[in-house]
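Quick start: read one record
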Amino acid sequence: MQEVFEYKGYWTKIRYSIPDGKWTGKIEGISDFVNFYGKDSDDIEKEFHEAVEDYLEFCERVGKQPEKPNMEEIKNAR
């Protein structure tokens, strides 16, 4: 399984949480905290895409400019 995903210029690194029994991730390189979970490895990429879409829709709804990922933080996340 691929551990790093990109979607619409946003990045994530996927991890498996043994205590929770779930795949987890968060959008890397932005100060806003956007995380997501998936029940299996097939589900997690879809959940990441939905998290990005939700973040962009939220920003639009509240009149906030979406943050652009900090590429230096993304390099460190890999």
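Residues 39 and 62 are 30 Å apart (CA to CA).
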